[in-house]
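Course assignment 3, question 2. Fill in each field.
Student: A.L.
Task: Predict the tertiary structure for the chain below.
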Amino acid sequence: MKRGEITVFLSIVFVLMISFVSGILQAAVIQSAKNMGRLETDRAVYSVFGEYQKELLKEYHVFGLEGSYGTGSYSEENLISRLHYYGTEGTEHKITGIQYLTDNRGQAFREQVLAYMEQVNGIGIVREFTGLTSEWEEQEIQGQEMEEIQTESMGEIENLNGLLESTEEQQAAGDSTEGEISGAAEDMSENPFSFLEKIKQYGIVSVVLPEDMEISEKEIRLETQVSCRSLTTGRGSFPVRSGMDGIEERLLFNEYVLDQYINAVPEEEENEERNRSLDYEVEYILSGKNSDEENLESVLFRIFLIRMALNYAFLLTDTERQGEAELLALTVSALILMPEAAEGIKQLVIIAWAAGESVTDIRVLLSGKRAALVKTSENWQTSLTSLFKLGESGGTEGRDDQEGICYKDYLRMLLFLKDTDDATMRALDRTEENLRSEQQLDHFRADHCVTSLKMDNTVTLYDSLTYQFPVQFGYE
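Answer field:
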């Protein structure tokens, strides 16, 4: 029989080896538990964000996790409950940062729109417009200057209209017997300035609509819109795309607006009926009024001033038409017995004539045709005598100039001149309203749509041993 023995040294070594192996195994178990906790949380986060609002993506190409899940009752606990549903029951989640579609004046919405437009259309879609932006800004300035000229002139035109009406009343009563005045009165059987007063009183819409166009009577409540109401706001910092306000980026976003939202002059492929709360959505994004009519009025008046500035500049260089304006001014000054006022009246006639041509231009645009950008003697449309009937039913519809610009071109210009934050938030207004009305998503709110999330997560490994780790996820 052999005897075995072990020394104290070997015993100690054996104990240390067992302890070392046990420690390695325990460390492996702990690390495995940590990894499983991370994997479970990552899987749950991906699953939760995979529940994005499908109609929002399908119709508007934007990702957003609608946090109320169709109930209209939003809470961050909804997200945590869904995380637990996807297998993180043993993990404690604390949301440290969250971003909604509407935060920072629609930052996430705008970023996703730009990413979509770059991916689908590429930057080349707006290259042809980048060289026009300085011209657009100049035209806007000219329109503002024209508004000042028109405002200053309206007082004089109103006084002149009063004198003309008084003269007509005298003629009707037979109080004037002078042959010269009677002849002038026959020539002035109608007032060439009356349509300007109609514009001032009833708006530009009252004189520019083509015969076959009816104004939409749809209205919305502004206080319920994303851009006007109190919103659920996020917290924390998230990456921001650089260059969102560059010229090309602004043009890209505007093309998205023109593609996704309808306007008063739809193209042929856009003529299908849509169950939307407004028919003039691009006009709303530009003007922010509560009714289609008010939004159209606002946009058309801006176009009217821009066109009027161009037409006024042409008339000042056209000697033939200046001669016609002078003859009419002499007639008017003779009629009101103020021949010394002929030169001043001539300037008012030129202003009225420029306005009359602008009315015809807008009729062309609203008919879906193109209006000449630069006026010449050949493409001028409005005769001086037609001013006498302007504003009545019918009227000159104008010619289609294939080299000119259309209504959509003016919308593109005005969108570029619009504040980007306002345009973004009003686009969100229309997105939310359209999903509610067209997709029957009555509880949908853009400020409940989560786009990015940061969390601190705590996993209990043993009774007194926990593991904390952060997680961040966002739609890109």
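Instructor remarks: The longest strand covers residues 449-460. Residues 8-49 form the longest helix (42 residues).
Grade: pending
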